[in-house]
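One chain given next:
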Amino acid sequence: MSRYVARTLRSDDFSTLMELETTLFGDAGEGELGRYYIRLCCDFFKDSCFLVEAAGRPAGYLLSFTRGKEVYCTTLAVLPEYQGSRATHTLLRAFVGSILGWAESCWFTVEEDNHAARALHAMLGAKEIEVRPDFYGTGHPRIISRIDRDAFMALRARFEKVGLVDRQADAKEPRAAESGGIAAVA
């Protein structure tokens, strides 16, 4: 069996995500996502949010929301011991595989000095379109980037070519996950 497994969130993932948040961001002195936000992800947006496990233990997560044919990827976080591993790859495979074929655009925000995230967004086909100087309040700017429909088509072709997603005639709207169904394995 593969070491990394990504699946959609379940309601009972709330405590796990809160612990990951504290470990990844709270202990580093950075702001954490609020409890309400995490609860929304686990209960109402679980079909577009993913948890990756390494040998059965939580290794990271990806949170996103959908509105119509737009996707907003808000957080991709991986524990330090799994950074640079296939954990990120497995999360991306699950996420991208869930939106290819129906999404018209995907939006990201990132701090200017987060070069790894900016490179990842660019690799996915995102273009940086603006900087909002006070995105998280005065003095907290964020770069906003977007993958458009043409970039999605190119991304899909690349992912299909290397076998990261199945070749499909047409992908449908996001499917309801049955109690945290497996979305990707690596």
Residues 171-179 have pLDDT under 50 and may be disordered.
